[in-house]
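Input/output pair, single chain:
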Amino acid sequence: MDFEKKLTELESIVEKMENGELSLDDSLKCFEKGVSLARECHEELSKAELKVQKLLKVDDKGNVNAEPFDVED
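Output:
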């Protein structure tokens, strides 16, 4: 599942839980799924941030040294 779909699903889970109409069991299942999705999204964002940092590497003089990277990293 791509990042946008994970984020959309996470938002849907939050909305359901905020609604307050779930049973305790369903709330726990949603919470567990939400935590998993949040971790996956965080990992993807961290990887994207590293790629951006690699692309915008700054030398000691403040010059940006763009470096190519493999999209499949």
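The mean pLDDT is 87. The chain is about 65% helix and 5% strand.
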